[in-house]
Amino acid sequence: MKDILKVKNLSKNFGGIVAVRDLSFEIKEGETLGFIGPNGAGKSTVVNILSGLIPADKGEVELDGVNITHMKPYQRARLGLARTYQIPRPFPELTALASVTVSALCGKKRKNQSFEDAAVEATHYLEFVGLFSKRNILARDLTFYELRMLELARALATTPKILFIDEVMAGLNPGEANRAVKMIAKAKEQFGLTIFWIEHVMAVLVEAADRIVAIHYGSKLAEGTPDEVVNNDAVIEAYLGRGWKEYA
Ligand SMILES: Nc1ncnc2c1ncn2[C@@H]1O[C@H](COP(=O)(O)OP(=O)(O)OP(=O)(O)O)[C@@H](O)[C@H]1O
Ligand SMILES: [Mg+2]
Fold first, then answer.
1. 3-80+160-247: CATH homologous superfamily?
2. Which of 20, 135, 159, 233 has the highest CB neighbour number within 10 Å of its CB?
3. pTM of the model
4. pLDDT digit string (tens) for 106-115?
């Protein structure tokens, strides 16, 4: 399988804090790559850099052979990169349908598409994530679970090749979290996605991921199959703890 994303020697400081330190890894086309590490390890910062929200201090990023290091977020979206946020970022005053329509107009397939066509497409994505009946509700009136699903619909509506998920389960009750995880699997299958997935619930990534990259203080700690990574001494020491399987 070819590498769809190549991250080379990425570094990012915030004032005196080193958030990402000389980090390199690849994502293969079609795989689910889990991305783990303790709170503050730099995971969201990596997604923020890869999606173009913040610039890296050093390093390069290639998407499908194209150097996207200095591209704006919308340019990356057109090349097939989409993300969700750890804390949902809705347009509070837009309806669910309008929110997803905006994404449909911004994504990869954007070929002079009319607003009406984009709205029809958006309706399909809302249906897919189970929000069809909420299409005319303002985003600010949605529940947290519904906001998470709206985030997913907005990302999918850009017709991405690769989807970055920054914690879909956080803030959800166990039943909702379970539904959200199943929704990711369904999206991957239906749309043939490559997925880069940050989650603190190890059992979920062990099940869903083909490989896992673990980071600590912004540096790579381990990389390999889920089995290799969860049994890695450095990962157990820095993040999982010895008894994690009993609590998973
Ligand atoms: N915009 C910012 N300004 C200053 N410091 C920041 C900023 N964003 C992140 N940091 C710091 O960078 C480090 C990495 O944070 P990051 O949010 O990437 O961690 P994370 O691995 O996503 O953690 P969590 O699992 O809690 O979401 C932390 O020390 C954090 O406080
Ligand atoms: Mg984070």
1. P-loop containing nucleotide triphosphate hydrolases (3.40.50.300)
2. 20
3. 0.94
4. 876 666 678 8
